[in-house]
């Protein structure tokens, strides 16, 4: 049996690895390496338990740090694991520092690299994720693009070999878990009423590391008429505390800050929300999957398809008035299958089998 070494480390990667690993293990030996980029129980452990992700073979425990320190520490540790395990290929997900560290380690040792969620571009190189994606794509042997737009982006950079449009593994994850979530929870469990609250998440560096933007975001949220449920990412919590914004938020009675929730809780809350406000890549798509309107507090998005059909609206929190935009938004026609058919994991494993042989 061929050996594939999977590298994960951050919350969205735990969610993506669950459906892929389930199928991959039917045909391959999988070694999971968790870099430990995210480490709080509600950012990491809860997903392994709830989504039945196999226990990592290696927990590197790298934790937080500046980009160089964090990525460098991961790179060194991953290289040691690669020397030891000698896998036939390395599999990485998305665009975090864990993705980049895995990509550099594998490519320097001439181990074929497979990238899930290849070809996404925001065309803003100030985003750490954009740099991570571009570099990873350019050293990958198999590039699993979720959309035609991603395939085109790669083509425009001269990357055509090994590119496969398979759809989005996050759609696989939602389809598998939404029934489980619906059987597990009632909206009353959260002291909420269905469609009577707004769900929000904020964590992007471009929003949290800019005081003007961060203040504008919370100012805008406080002006909305609805109750806003905000599972707060630890990065944002840290910034609010150090910048002294926390007290102002406590005065905004409509904003209900809670700790990060589990994936099952999240997809359940998404489906019962009136609309979603976010800067998360994954949550933008989950809003579309849940058929809930979305307002994205960013200047660009990689997930352009949801914006193109009018389901997702980009809002600059500093120069635009979120309340007016929310109130003026008309309902739009839903377009099915922007991100494939929910069988991305099987398609990925088929392509890998053809590439490696079993
Ligand atoms: C990372 C990814 C981002 C992704 C996000 C998903 C990079 C460059 N960024 O951003 O693309 O959208 O994960 O959530 O890889 N912290 C904790 N506990 C944790 C994890 C983080 O307290 O379990 C705090 C630390 O103060 C840390 C900060 O959050 O310094 C940022 O964490 P980090 O992993 O560096 O980046 P994210 O903002 O989470
Ligand atoms: N998510 C979660 N609990 C939360 C917030 C988000 O389970 O409290 C899930 C969400 O449903 C989605 C993923 O985390 O599947 C998105 O991750 P995140 O927003 O951290 O990163 P991004 O997608 O922006 O890289």
What about the largest sheet? 7 strands, parallel
CATH class of the largest domain: Alpha Beta
Element pattern in H and E = EHEHEHEHEHEHEHEHHEHHEHEHEHEHH
CATH topology call of the largest domain:
Rossmann fold
CATH architecture of the largest domain: 3-Layer(aba) Sandwich
Given the helix and strand composition, which structural class is it?
alpha/beta
| Major beta sheet, strand line-up | 3-2-1-4-5-6-7
Q: Using DSSP, what is the number of strands? A: 13
Anisotropy-based shape: globular
Rounded average pLDDT: 97
**Strand fraction:** 15-25%
Bound small molecules, by name, code or SMILES, are:
uridine-diphosphate-N-acetylglucosamine, uridine-5'-diphosphate
Keywords: Isomerase
InterPro entries: UDP_GlcNAc_Epimerase_2_dom, WecB-like
EC number: 5.1.3.14
Organism: Bacillus mesophilus
Structural notes for this entry:
46% of the residues lie in helices and 15% in strands. It has a seven-stranded parallel sheet, sandwiched between helices. The longest helix is centred in the first third of the chain and has 19 residues, at 67-85. The protein has helices at 11-24, 45-50, 67-85, 97-108, 128-138, 148-156, 169-184, 205-208, 211-223, 234-243, 246-251, 263-272, 281-289, 304-308, 322-328, 344-356; strands at 3-8, 29-34, 58-59, 89-93, 113-116, 142-145, 163-165, 197-201, 227-231, 255-258, 275-278, 294-296, 312-314. The relative contact order is 0.13. The model has no long low-confidence stretch (mean pLDDT 97).
């Amino acid at each position: 049996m061929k050996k594939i070494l999977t590298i994960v480390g951050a919350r969205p990667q735990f969610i993506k690895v669950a459906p892929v690993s389930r199928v991959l293990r039917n045909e391959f030996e999988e070694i999971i390496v968790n870099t430990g980029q995210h480490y709080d129980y509600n950012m990491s452990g809860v997903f392994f338990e709830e989504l039945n992700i196999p226990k990592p073979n290696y927990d590197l425990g790298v934790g937080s740090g500046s980009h160089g320190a964090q990525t460098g520490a991961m790179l060194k540790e991953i290289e040691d694991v690669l020397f030891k395990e000698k896998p036939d290929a390395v599999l990485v997900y998305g665009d975090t520092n864990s993705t980049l560290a895995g990509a550099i380690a594998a490519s320097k040792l001439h181990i074929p690299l497979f990238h899930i969620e290849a070809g996404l571009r925001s065309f803003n190189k100030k985003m750490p994720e954009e740099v991570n994606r571009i570099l990873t794509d350019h050293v990958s042997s198999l590039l699993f693009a979720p959309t035609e737009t991603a395939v085109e982006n790669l083509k425009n950079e001269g990357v055509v070999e090994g590119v496969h449009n398979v759809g989005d593994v996050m759609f696989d994850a939602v389809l598998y878990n939404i029934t489980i979530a619906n059987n597990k929870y009632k909206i009353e469990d959260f002291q909420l009423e269905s469609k009577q609250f707004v769900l929000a998440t904020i964590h992007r560096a471009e929003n949290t590391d800019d005081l003007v933007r961060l203040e504008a975001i919370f100012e805008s949220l406080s002006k909305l008429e609805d109750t806003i449920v905000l599972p707060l990412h630890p990065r944002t919590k840290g910034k609010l505390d150090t910048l002294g914004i926390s007290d102002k938020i406590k005065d905004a009675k409509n904003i209900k800050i809670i700790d990060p929730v589990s994936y099952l809780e999240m997809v359940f809350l998404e489906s019962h929300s009136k609309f979603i406000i976010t800067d998360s890549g994954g949550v933008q798509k989950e809003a579309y999957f849940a058929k809930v309107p979305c307002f994205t507090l960013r200047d660009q998005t990689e997930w352009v398809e949801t914006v193109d059909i009018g389901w997702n609206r980009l809002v600059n929190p500093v120069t635009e008035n979120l309340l007016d935009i929310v109130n003026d938004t008309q309902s739009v026609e839903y377009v099915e299958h922007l991100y494939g058919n929910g069988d991305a994991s099987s398609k990925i494993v088929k392509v890998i089998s053809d590439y490696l042989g079993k």
